[in-house]
Write the structure tokens for this entry.
Amino acid sequence: MLVEVERNLDLGSFDATQDSVDEYLRSVGDALPVYKETGLAPPLYSAASALGALLRELALPPGAIHSLQEIETLTPVVIGNSVKVSALVEKPRRRAGLEFITVVCSVESDGALALASKSTVLVPSQEPPAGTPRDTNVQGIESLKSGLDVISKEIKQEDLDAYAKASGDDNPLHLDPEFAAKTQFGGIIAHGMLTLAFVSEMMAAAHGRDWLESGGLRVRFKGAARVGDRVEAWGNLAKEDEQTWGYSVGVRNSTTGQELIAGTAGLAIKQE
């Protein structure tokens, strides 16, 4: 149901089983050992599960597009624990013929607030403009500058299918070639939260348990990756003190040079 007024939603509970975490990690291509070593789920596992439950409840029109995402980890989700999800859906905002819906999700685990997630979704018009082929004659792409080890992935349809199953986000824009061809994108694009997962993987590789226990993200989705594209997640240290580190982060399409995601990541650093 597409809401027209602000309201609270109870999105139910689920168990963060090892199997479901593994299914999510396979769908985003994250093979880091830190999750099994610590017994903690990655922050975006909980955020993606919450968003999937939300999309099923709201029944947004096919082709709704993720625009902004904020995530704050307050306490990690322990693999095997039960997770409860609730949401505050703000009244839709309309501007220049477009409609935006912002939702604040709360994820509770083991009786404590584990994660807060704020998502803004752009709802398409009833008759979206026809897509146009993008220019693939790209020259002079600048080399990527990243202080953290870059995560590079190729976007494959089987990964989109697996992510849709793992997260519950089965928007036909990511799965149905016939539907996607009629949108402004002119074809299938990757889930925004799938590409954002590459940033989380990069941060987990750099900071391990500290990222799982306290990681936060604030990003804007600026472009979309297509099947066959190769994308790169990057990060540069922007702020450092005794207790917290902050990064400028993003995802770039290395096939075209287009910036897909831009924003910041932060975490608390424990002193040894």
Notes: Confidence is low (pLDDT under 50) at residues 128-133, 135-139. Residues 74 and 258 are 33 Å apart (CA to CA). The helical segments are 18-28, 34-38, 43-58, 157-167, 177-181, 192-207, 209-214. The radius of gyration is 18 Å.
